Amino acid sequence: MNKLYVGSEVGQLRRVLIHRPRRALTHLTPSNCHQLLFDDVLAVEKAGEEHDVFAKTLESQGVEVLLLTNLLAETLAIAEAKDWLLNTQVSDFRYGPTFANDVRCYLADLPNLELAKILTGGLSFGEMPLESSSMLQSLYKKNDFIIDPLPNHLFTRDTSCWVYGGVSINPMAKVARQRETNHLRAIYRWHPSFAGQDFIKYFGDEPLAYDHSTIEGGDVLVIGKGAVLIGMSERTTPQGVEHLASSLFKHGQAKQVIALELPKDRSCMHLDTVMTHMREDTFSVYPNVIPDDVKCWSLTGDESGRVKATQQTSYISTIEKALHVDKLNLITTGGDNFEAEREQWNDANNVLTVKPGVVIGYERNTYTNEKYDKAGITVLPIPGDELGRGRGGARCMSCPIERDGI
Asked: Measured between alpha carbons, how far apart are the two ends of the chain, in Å?
């Protein structure tokens, strides 16, 4: 049986969860894309082809690729899981008892794969053939959504993140993404690959109102040797960090959490859009967002779950101590100021390491990729002209489930 364990950012990647979106992208339009947290609409077929290249690149490196839609469909084959998901995602409080019941009845009769595609890709009033006696149907237009599409499921990194011997099932900051978490709750609870396996659920397993305690996996870097680096961003709060840190310490899974303060800005939505780990002593960094004097705390604790936060003078020396390396090698985004800003926006820093010194990144970021190459980092290039419009690169689009430590 494969081990559910992620011991680092840079050890050999063995199993990863990704999502090839289609239905959700067909529902993305200029009038709704901003509400759904996209800056633009994507060419659906082209985005799918680019995603296929990403999957094949992973497989060429010996990585087992799991697809979210398939996992969700296989989870829905379990009656208890299907019942829970339909009642959670199509609740009486969201739609009123009459319409909720009608929608659930319609969805329950669909094949599981079709149902999985609707839950992730959305359903408009015009697409539901059922006539309901509820007032709702006559109050909405055909193109209004009964179930909003979840195009951000593309970024499987955020919804859940595996940290050493367990997973955080993340309460998301934005309403447009909060339903994603329920899909992962169901998969980790019922899917045969996870049900009954020996792993810890650190945080977020219950569908509660987590209030200000939000956390997203793009901010969580498992840098190894018992340390975790977390960015406090537009989406991850100090409260969320403290909850995850407390659970990590309580279960004896981490010795230290290093927290960095990030600007609350879309261009650096998560830590991994400005900083990723490429080799034990090497990080890519966008210095305009992560200057040497960025505010940094070291969080420690014990099995009581209490957390002690101590502000540090230098994030670089804090990471060096945690990783037991003499000197960190920081590779900054390539080109002049204009080129560097453009390439950071196009996810030049958001690379996915598949083994030490080998990363997957968008081919379009030529200046930064050249710097990586000169530093001895091998870039496996993938196309991202369409996928990149979602503002996420290879790391954003991947949720490692099994990876070696360092």
From this structure: 22
- Catalytic residue list: 396
Amino acid at 57: T
Classify residue 306 as exposed, middle or buried by CB count within 10 Å of its CB (0-12, 13-18, 19+).
exposed
Could you tell me how far CA 360 lies from the centroid of its own chain? Answer: 16
pTM score, whole prediction: 0.94
CB of 161 closer than 8 Å to CB of 219: no
As a three-state string, the secondary structure of 377-406 is: CEEEEECCCCHHHHCCCCCCCCEEEEECCC
Q: Which CATH superfamily is domain 71-147 in?
A: Arginine deiminase (1.10.3930.10)
What pLDDT digit, counting tens, does each position of 288-305 carry? 889 889 999 999 999 999
* 135 CB-contact burial (10 Å; exposed 0-12 / middle 13-18 / buried 19+): exposed
CATH domain 5-67+151-179+194-403 topology? L-arginine/glycine Amidinotransferase; Chain A (3.75.10)
| Token pair of 50 as six digits | 């680019």
The position carrying tokens 């006539």 is: 131
Q: Which amino acid is at 233?
A: S
User: Domain residue spans in the chain?
Assistant: 5-67+151-179+194-403, 71-147
At 214-228, the pLDDT tens digits run 999 999 999 999 999
